[in-house]
Amino acid sequence: MNVSGKAQMTSKSGMMNRLFAKGVPTTHCYRLWSTATNGCLSMQHSYSRVHYRHFDRRGNRSIGLSRRTLVSQSSRVVCAATDSPTSTDRKAGSSSIGGGKGKKHKQMIDTNPPRGTRDFPPEEKRMQKWLFGEFDRVATGFGFEHIDFPVLESEELFVRKAGEEITDQLYNFEDKGGRRVSLRPELTPSLARLALQKGKGLALPAKWYAIGQCWRYERATRGRRREHYQWNMDIIGVEGVEAEAELLAAITQFFKGVGLTSADVGIKVSSRKVLQQVLESCGLDSETFGPVCILVDKLDKLPREKVVDGLLQLGLSNDTAEKILSALNVKDVGDLESLIGEDNDAVKDLKRLFDLAAAYGYDEYLVFDASVVRGLAYYTGVVFEGFDREGKLRAICGGGRYDKLLGTFGGEDQPCVGFGFGDAVIMELLSDKGLLPTPSHSVDDLVIAMDKELYPAACSIASKLRANNKTVDLVLDSGKKMKWAFKQAERCGASRLVLVAPDEWEKGLVRVKNLETREEEDVPIDSI
User: Fold this and answer.
1) What is the DSSP code (8-state) at residue 90?
2) How far is Cα 172 from Cα 114, in angstroms, rounded to an integer?
């Protein structure tokens, strides 16, 4: 075969046009190394049919590829053409058509993380560390113990048959052992699994908190990502709303700690028992309850008519649908009492909860809103949802009581209540309010050797300081000038500059400069 020209194809259409260039014999085999698939694409071409096969680095054939797939996956490939399908594969980036010696071509990878995910360079990681520190401070201040679980869980933990969005948003797959697994979309089912694992050995009440990464395949928007970190606090073994009151106190404590007042944020509170009472009064069975809750939770996302249509599709009459939506429009506990009666459990729970909130001193943050039901099927009683007063963002946090969750996993039911608090929305809100701090990198000491021969001495000084719990940045290049040393000390936020210089070292001293006061002194090595 006699085809000249470089193998590098920089456009999808250009690559294919050149492969089918005029003058190519009727049948040939091409080997193309794809940087996108990290393998060799073998193409057998005739004027009537084209076949593509993908081979990995070991030569194992894996999949057949259509012409369209080949183009989409190989915007840049290296192609070697021969008259025989048995020719040796060429290395990526090093071959050219026609057997000529070519130059190596390197393509820059896509430096962006996958859509909906984030990188955390140092400045962003410091901000995350600050936020997680606030979560930790509140949780430990309330006497909660820190727990964690694997990011990868069994799929059955999250697959429920109530029409929840979360079921369709799973990053789930079959592992190499044939097991169905999923990246966790939330933390509560994992907590339930751990509680069941502990069994009778779990001392009650248990107060646990976790901060973990969660994954959901959903449309990425402001405050909504496909991966996020979530702070959970849960109480197991307390039946009364005292548990809910304690968790709401933790949330409002966090708000106050980061500077958010009741004028900035609020927490909508209701009870699923309200909706349950309405459904029972309409003669509907308990099987309808979960799907109705999930639909009603979309009232702030969908037009009212769409929600009504969804209720009708569940088999409810138009009158029943309207009665449900009218009941959920109640905005005052007193009006709720008039609607369903003062002896109703929902009314009793909510009145007690608001009384406790006043005793804690955070009642100004709470708002009764009967339409809050939360979209997860496992909630059974009081539910709540944090929101920004300006209504610019989606829910800040949310939670409630889930007394039946452990039973759905085959265990013994336990009274449980908890909340999830994501990192994305709160960071957007704090940014909007100008409340984000600017944590900077800092160390106690910057140690530098002023002479190459003194670098081992600088290493020993850094070790002495670190052994005394000092944070130390050791300059790894010796012989730097003083001007550079001062700039580096400023960059790393050092409080002191420790110079290992020839004259001082011979005397058993090091020069220590306090960068805040600008004072300096020679300090004996033994007392550094």
Assistant:
1) P
2) 17
**H runs (alpha helix) in 172-229:** 188-198
Helices (H) and strands (E) in the chain, counts: 17, 21
Tokens of 59: 């030569």
* Burial environment of residue 516 by CB neighbours within 10 A (0 to 12, 13 to 18, 19 or more): exposed
pLDDT score at 175? 96
**282-323 pLDDT tens trace:** 777 777 777 887 787 777 777 888 888 888 888 888 888 888
Q: How many residues does the chain have?
A: 528
- Maximum C-alpha span of the chain: 95
Which structure tokens are listed for 432?
């909007």
Q: How far is CA 318 from CA 94, 95, 272, 349, in A?
A: 70, 71, 21, 30
Tell which phi-psi region holds residue 318, choosing left (phi > 0), alpha (psi between -120 and 50) or beta. alpha
- Whose structure tokens read 């849960």? 234
Tell me the two tokens of residue 292: 């109705």
Q: Give the CA radius of gyration of the chain.
A: 32
DSSP classification of residue 449:
E
**pLDDT in the model for residue 59:** 44
pLDDT for the residue 222: 83
Phi then psi for residue 325, to 5 deg, are -70, -35
Q: In this predicted structure, what is the pLDDT of residue 70?
A: 36
- For 52-147, where are the alpha helices, taking DSSP H only? 67-73, 122-141
Residue 42 has pLDDT above 80, yes or no: no
Name the pairing type of β-strands 77-82 and 152-154.
Answer: unpaired
Q: Does an H or E element contain 424, and which?
A: helix 423-432
**Which pair of tokens denotes residue 322?**
């309207």
d(CA 420, CA 208): 12
Higher pLDDT, 54 or 414: 414
For residue range 1-33, what is the model confidence (pLDDT) as tens digits?
Answer: 443 333 333 344 444 444 333 344 433 444 444
pLDDT tens digits, one per residue of 394-441: 899 999 999 999 999 999 999 999 999 999 999 999 999 999 999 999
Note whether 138 and 253 are within 8 A (CB): yes
Residue 210, strand partner residues = 232
Instruction: Name every residue whose Cβ is closer than 8 Å to that of residue 157 and which is 6 or more positions away in sequence.
Output: 182, 184, 189, 190, 193, 409
